[in-house]
Amino acid sequence: MSRPNFYAATGIDRATLKREDEAFIQDLISDSRTRFVPVLQERNLIQSGREPKAVFVSGMMARALTGSGAELIFLGIVEEQAHFAIDVGGLDLPLEQMGEFVDLRQVGPLLFHRDGSLLAYARGMTYWHRRHKFCGVCGTPTKVVKAGHERQCTNPECKAQHFPRTDPAVIMLVTHGDQALLGRGRHFPAGMHSTLAGFVEPGESLEDAVAREVFEEVAVRVKDVRYHSSQPWPFPASIMLGYRAEAQSTEYEVNPDELESARWFTRAELKDAQASRGTTGFFLPRKDSIARRLIEDWLDQD
Ligand SMILES: [Zn+2]
Description:
- The protein has helices spanning about 20-30, 60-65, 105, 115-130, 205-220, 265-275, 290-300; strands at about 35-40, 45, 55, 70-80, 80-85, 100, 140-145, 150-155, 160, 165-175, 180-185, 195-200, 220-235, 240-245, 260-265.
- It is an alpha+beta fold.
- Zinc ion binds near residues 137, 153 and 158.
């Protein structure tokens, strides 16, 4: 549990106390070392190839970006370089010369960990901004404040503040002795099985959400619900809270509205799957997922 999950933003100083300091933010925007993270719809700019790389914009193109009037979202400082996210939808700039806009999840695990975190963070922020141009209370346009970490209603009678959202979801590995219960969602690639998961509801504790989701999906009662680790998952706006839970019995019944199938796997079967890389027709979730991490940490405990 000492190793951060993929997309966890290690080494990024968010400088939260400086976001309201407009002079500080303006200095960073005009600093030639500053890098910009362009996002087009839900896609990030990547230099593809055998070793894909995140594309950060600086220099001439950065001046074109900052001069465009588009909203800049301050992400933070990494090794003395400030980073801003920018939604480039609607801007007429030749960014495609620098790379290709792709879904981060296609290449995420191949990127340098911190670059993956910055791109995910930028994607989550721009997504939220695009959906909060108007006040949810009175319908008036909102404006950016705090360097992109808040939107405020421009109606003087309202002035409602809107903050970027992160929706908690629980994800849990359910075990019973030497077996783990994995399921298949309808949209999963053929052969893939993963841990169960679901969104936390208002007024619910995380532990209760774990127990409820497991019961809803496979009609299993759990005990010993224990926190493992978390993973930012801004695709579009979640944080995955990883848990372990022990089933009270091995009997289960799949809810067809929630899952295509589920079954118990022994440690030996899962280790085979890990080693065979899917050649047995069964494979584990992607390497950058917390689901994979929950399973592998449990296998390593043996
Ligand atoms: Zn309002």
